[in-house]
Amino acid sequence: MKDDLALRVHERLSACPGLCPVGPAEGQRFARWDLASLAEGALGACADPDSITASHEKRLRLRLGAAGREYEHEDDHCRRYWIRDPAEDREDGRPRGPLGTVAVDTWPSGVGSLRVSSLYVHPVARRRGLASSALDTVYEACRAEGLHGFRLDTYWTWQRSVRYYLNRGLWVTSWKHALGLARLSYLPRYEVTESEGELTFLVADPKACAAGATVPLLVAGAVDGRLRLREAEEYARTRDEPNAVRYYARSTIALHLAVRGWPLVRGEEEWAEAVAGRWCDIGDPEGLARKIQIFEQVARDDGWRLTGLYGRSSPSRRD
Questions:
Q1: Quick one: CA torsion of 80, 86, 87, 90, rounded to 10 degrees?
Q2: CA dist 89 to 49, 79, 84, 142, Å?
Q3: Cβ(61)–Cβ(70) under 8 Å?
Q4: Rounded-to-integer distance, Cα 273 and Cα 290, Å
Q5: CA distances in angstroms from 223 to 94, 220, 266, listed in the order given
Q6: What's the chain look like in SS3?
Q7: Of 55, 85, 131, 142, which sits with the fewest C-beta atoms within 10 Å of its C-beta?
């Protein structure tokens, strides 16, 4: 049943004018676009995917290691799409070339969601809302078929992508192997505001009559290089209730703090727990601080670009 739901989602995506399914003969071309995305994020090397030669492709894949391994197009686990702009169709109605890529799984993951990958927009077509439109299309197709939405992964060292997804309002739902983010129907719209040295995490208030009304859940600040995290009244009120919003609010504000370079560690006891493995998959900010150290070390070992990142200075932020 769940697989059937996913396939019906793909029927909707295939009919969307902003997406075009990748044909069997286009697998190698899609792979080069995927490679261009990896190279830009991991190495800072920006290249026109359709201009990548065979020798250049080989060099990039060697530099990217396991992340640069080529996939087989006959992959039953996901379907791939070109992102296009219908407004650019030729006068005869034929579409112009692709402007980006996105892939969507054919089997739900987590609780009723589909995993998105390979989201990329060609540099010449950016700042036109194409990636946002593609994500909105996937979400709406999932909801139309009774699924909750989508999940995706990104790397901490890909700061441009991390900040983009946070600005899109995605929730942080995992940091086990990479940063897992999601847009799910049971997680409400949220806002993060900064004022007077504090960061406040607010969510849409379902009880309010006014459209756009929000209620604060968590308030974060910094004192002497340590994190101070305070639970607002609405958060404390639901302390004993099973609540996904409560659970993911802590991890989501943690990533917002991290991209701003704020402390993630409240004290030595919490840091020792994180080092011992607590919150290694998701949870409190100290778990993210520990995982950032690991993410950056792995990226450094693989020869990936690390510039201006939080994790390298995290020890001084907890001493």
A1: 110
A2: 21, 23, 9, 27
A3: yes
A4: 10
A5: 60, 10, 9
A6: CHHHHHHHHHHHHHCCCCEEECCHHHHHHHHHHHHHHHHHHHHCCCCCHHHCCHHHHHHHHHHHHHHHCCCCCCCCCEEEEEECCHHHCCCCCCCCCCCEEEEEECCCECCCEEEEEEEEECHHHCCCCHHHHHHHHHHHHHHHCCCCEEEEEECCCCHHHHHHHHHCCCEEEECCCCEEEEEECCCCCEEEEEECCEEEEEEECCCCCCCCCEEEEEEEEEECCEEEEEECHHHHHCCCCCCHHHHHHHHHHHHHHHHCCCCCCCCHHHHHHHHCCCCCCCCCHHHHHHHHHHHHHHHHHCCCCCCCCCHHHHHHHHC
A7: 55
**CATH 3.40.630.30 location in the chain:** 2-154
Which pTM does this prediction carry? 0.92
pLDDT at 95: 63
For the domain spanning 2-154, the CATH number is 3.40.630.30
Mean pLDDT per 10-residue segment, the chain (319 residues):
84 96 94 95 92 94 81 73 87 76 92 95 95 98 97 96 97 97 96 96 81 91 96 83 86 97 97 96 97 95 79 42
Strand 100-105 relative to strand 78-83, pairing: antiparallel
Note the Cα 267 to chain centre separation in Å.
28
